[in-house]
Amino acid sequence: MNREQTRQIIDKFSGLRIIVLGDLMLDEFIWGEVRRISPEAPVPIVDIKRETLSLGGAGNVISNLIDLGAHVLPIGVVGNDSAAVLIRDRLNERGAEICGLISENSRPTTRKTRIVAHSRHQQQQIVRADREERTPVSAEVEARVIDAFNSFLDDAHALIISDYEKGLLTPGLLGVVIESARGQGKLVCLDPKIRNFQHYRKVDLITPNQPEAERATNIEITDEESISAALHRISEMLDCENVLITRGEQGMSLLSERNTITHIPTVAREVYDVTGAGDTVIATLTLCLSAGANLVEAATIANHAAGVVVGKIGTATLSCSELEFAMHGEVE
After folding, report:
1. Residue 301 contacts residue 284 (beta carbons within 8 Å)
2. Angle formed at CA 58 by CA 210 and CA 188, multiple of 5 degrees
3. I need a labelling partner for 87 at 20 to 30 A (CA). Which of 3, 38, 180, 261 fits?
4. How far lies 127's CA from each of 42, 119, 124, in Å?
């Protein structure tokens, strides 16, 4: 792709309205330094220097879409707690709709706390603490989610389903929203997890990572023959024509329209943190496809976007100018 082709696609992002349905989280990072080991147990003592909060899970998909210029219609479930307030505040500050956030008092808002520390010139995650409830949402909450989805659907260009296995995406809910979106000719892109895999039928595009693809298909991916077999197996299992398997340092492998396989090598120069890279991929892919790019063009652009965010620490996003620079060098 040349610069003009890329720019024509990126310039259309700001006119797009994307529904994001998925598991919202709050990512908390505690940053510090390790200079000694505790005398109480063989664990490092972290001297805390700063703390940051960001949207995680489906919230990171939302952040990526917003930073690329799109208007986002989030739908998710939160608790009745301080983390829910923080999520609403951040979405409101970013200009996203918040009427699609459904409260369920009996469950906590998913919150992941990571302690990241410098030690001997290296920065690494020391521990992660999760506060979450993974049981399926109630029938009442499910109905409220469907109502919110229906209220957004007419005005949306596409639907992203972001599954983190936190209980929102029940088989019944998945069936209703996928059928409704496809019935109105809306693009449906899905970032999966294993528990619901058989319920993702008839989406337009699914983006498992390699471990997810291997578990779903029971195929160990070791070469071109096995990646081809896994791509076709997923396509047949889910009646889904387009499958993109993200493969870390091996890049991406795309099956489009059940026939053509394209391997896209990684462009990441330095990898500091892969947290949320899949969120960047699904967000960028959906925007590119909604802007008129073909699948190979969209996957190529998404690959460059992922190459940017893995070079950052923490739950990261990128701007349109960073994306253009990653693909073509200095932005004109």
Report:
1. yes
2. 70
3. 180
4. 14, 14, 9
In the chain, what are the domain boundaries?
A: 3-328
Q: What is the 3-state secondary structure (H, E, C) of 45-106?
A: EEEEEEEEEEEEEHHHHHHHHHHCCCEEEEEEEECCCHHHHHHHHHHHHCCCCCCCEEECCC
Query: Could you give the CA distance from residue 263 to residue 247 in angstroms, rounded to a whole number?
Result: 10
pLDDT tens digits, residue range 11-42? Answer: 999 999 999 999 999 999 999 999 899 999 99
Torsion angle, CA of 80/82/84/86, rounded to 10 degrees?
A: 160
- Between CA 87 and CA 90 the distance in angstroms is 5
CB-based contact 55:1 (threshold 8 Å): no
We find that the CATH architecture of domain 3-328 is 3-Layer(aba) Sandwich (3.40)
110-119/122-131 β-pairing:
antiparallel
In 3D space, the residue among 166, 209, 170, 135 whose CA is nearest the CA of residue 56 turns out to be: 166
Residue 261 vs residues 6, 186, 189, 201, 252: alpha-carbon distances, Å = 22, 24, 18, 20, 10
Burial of 1 (0-12, 13-18, 19+ CB in 10 A): middle
**Residue with more model confidence, 257 or 87:** 87
Please classify residue 176 by burial: count the beta carbons closer than 10 Å to its beta carbon, then call 0-12 exposed, 13-18 middle and 19+ buried. middle
Compute the distance between CA of residue 63 and CA of residue 81 in angstroms, rounded to an integer. Answer: 21
List C-alpha distances in Å: 321 to 291, 305, 308.
Answer: 17, 11, 11
Q: Is 279 a catalytic residue?
A: yes
**CA separation (Å) from 327 to 253, 286, 330?**
19, 18, 9
DSSP state of 316: -
Tokens for 92, please give them.
Answer: 């409101």
Q: In degrees rounded to 5, what are phi and psi of residue 240?
A: -125, 120
Could you give the count of Cα atoms lying within 13 Å of 12 in the half-sphere of its Cβ? 16
Catalytic residue of the set 27, 67, 191, 279: 279
What integer pLDDT is reported at residue 79 of this predicted model? 95
